[in-house]
Amino acid sequence: MDTERIQHLLTEAQSSLSVFQKTQAETSRADALEKVTSLARALEKPKDAILKLSYTPSVCMALKVAIDLGVFPILAKATSPVSAEELATVKSADPLLVGQ
User: Fold this and answer.
1) pTM confidence score
2) Please, is 39 exposed, middle or buried when counting C-beta atoms within 10 Å of its C-beta (0-12, 13-18, 19+)?
3) Residue 27 above 90 pLDDT?
4) Neighbours of 9 (CB within 10 A)
5) Which residue range or ranges hold the O-methyltransferase dimerisation domain (predicted)?
């Protein structure tokens, strides 16, 4: 790990975050996000990246199931927490599986 590079990225991230805090501009937010992401990637070890990639398919499949079950419109309209049982009844799904 190149500590000089990490220090440089940290300084850039702090500067970008400071600009965003002052301006609240979308371009400043995007720039700060880019700088923070670069810092996080510089700190990542290969094992971290591999673990992150290994969970990506699971997240994608969970999102597909949630879309197929119509979970997001229900949650968007809800004014209080919605249980897995309530979400499952909409599509006659198994509450245990919906909760997972």
Assistant:
1) 0.57
2) buried
3) yes
4) 20
5) 58-90
